[in-house]
Amino acid sequence: MTTEHMLRMGDGKRVYLTKEQILTDLRDGMADAVDLGDIPELSGDELDKLMDIITMPSRMVGVEAGMEVPVTHDIGTIRLDGDQGNSGVGIPSSRLVGCMVHERAFGADTMELGHIDYSFKPVKPVIAQEMQTMEVCQQNMVIPLLYGAMPNMGLYYTPDGPFENPGDLMKAFKIQEARESMEHAAKHLTRDMVWIMQRMMASGSDGVNFDTTGAAGDGDMYATLHAVENLRKQYPEMYIEVGMAGELVLGLHGEMTYDGTVLAGLWPHQQAPLAAKAGANLFGPVVNTNTSKSFAWNLGRAVTFIKAAVKASPIPCHVNMGMGVGGIPMLETPTIDAVSRASKAMVEIANVDGI
After folding, report:
1. What is the arithmetic mean of pLDDT over 34-58?
2. Residues sharing a CB contact under 8 Å with residue 24, sequence separation 6 or more, in sequence order
3. What whole-number distance in Å separates Cα of residue 70 and Cα of residue 82?
4. How many alpha carbons fall within 13 Å on the CB side of residue 201?
5. Per-residue 3-state assignment (H helix, E strand, C coil) for the chain
6. Crossing angle for the helix pair 295-312 and 19-37, nearest 10 degrees?
7. Residues 344, 338: contact at Cβ < 8 Å?
8. In what order do the strands lie in the sheet with 145-149?
9. Measuring CA to CA, which residue among 308, 312, 310, 332 is closest to residue 322?
10. For residue range 132-181, what is the model confidence (pLDDT) as tens digits?
11. What average pLDDT does range 187-194 have in this prediction?
């Protein structure tokens, strides 16, 4: 009788596959990354190791002794006090308590403070409150505490912002007007992010985490890289983390560049050197999960992409691992069997510096 192993599909559903089926999916996922990113394949030994990790009988696995890596966090304390539709668990607590729980109970290596909306723009009207909270948290903590938020350039377009929505303009074939709207929004976004971080640094922040960079396309990444560059000049010792929103920078504008490189269409191994050039200390690459493919297909693809990004990056890479990224199924609370196997593969095969 053929032995089958329990895996999950990208949507979290349990499936049972033979070793031959798993190996086929691993190779197909790897081939997809190689084709899209024009990057090297995994070696035969690395595919064998991936197979071993996926078929380990334990429900939960861990890295080999001595290969432990630091863990950085995004979303701040919303993970505790946020609602369950927003990755939280609905435990009423202050942000100070949330930060201290992460440090003293969860053993977090770093933590970040974030606004409940977790975007930069809504912080502007309550900046004094954010500064006060940062100062109080710093007085009670030892580990590095960053300020975290999403660039979220979409908030600068109508109906939420002052600039006309590029999507509406493009539907009317007003391509040049759409590009000009993105350029104006990017300048305002850079200005706001720098202004907010100037005040958070004055309140004792150890740095910033630009989370989900590029969510609104190449303009979003353009604004973030310029904010990083500006802050690095002002604060040479500041800790700056750039985490991506997706595996590919969407070319909504199509012609925006940074240091002579067109941002549209960049893959993780091409994004990391630009983040370093702007002045970031750490890069968070992303590989999206295909919900209609198996965990083996998604993990083979993700490890291939991230291994290339780590090799190309002059700064440490902390890969994004969570719901719908890093080979992990798209579930609000990802299953530990998939999370632990994907994390082990990223450390031991892709050689990431952290998660």
Report:
1. 97
2. none
3. 24
4. 18
5. CCCCEEEEECCCCEEEECHHHHHHHHHHHHHHHHHHHCCCCCCHHHHHHHHHHHHCCCCCCCCCCCCCCCCCCCCCCHHHHCCHHHCCCCCCCCHHHHHHHHHHCCCCCCEEECCCCCECHHHHHHHHHHHHHHHHHHHCCCCCEEEEEECCHHHHECCCCCECCHHHHHHCCCHHHHHHHHHHHHHHHHHHHHHHHHHHHHCCCCEEEEEEECCCCHHHHHHHHHHHHHHHHHCCCCEEEEEECCCCCCCCCCCCEECCEECCCCCHHHHHHHHHHHCCCEEECCCECCCCCEHHHHHHHHHHHHHHHHHHCCCCEECCCECCECCCCCCCCCCHHHHHHHHHHHHHCCCCCEC
6. 40
7. no
8. 111-113, 145-149, 207-213, 239-244, 282-284
9. 332
10. 999 999 999 999 999 999 999 999 999 999 999 999 999 999 999 999 99
11. 98
Q: What is the pLDDT of residue 110?
A: 93
Query: By CB neighbour count within 10 A (0-12 exposed, 13-18 middle, 19+ buried), where does 133 fall?
Result: buried
Q: How many residues does the chain have?
A: 355
What is the maximum alpha-carbon separation in the chain?
A: 67
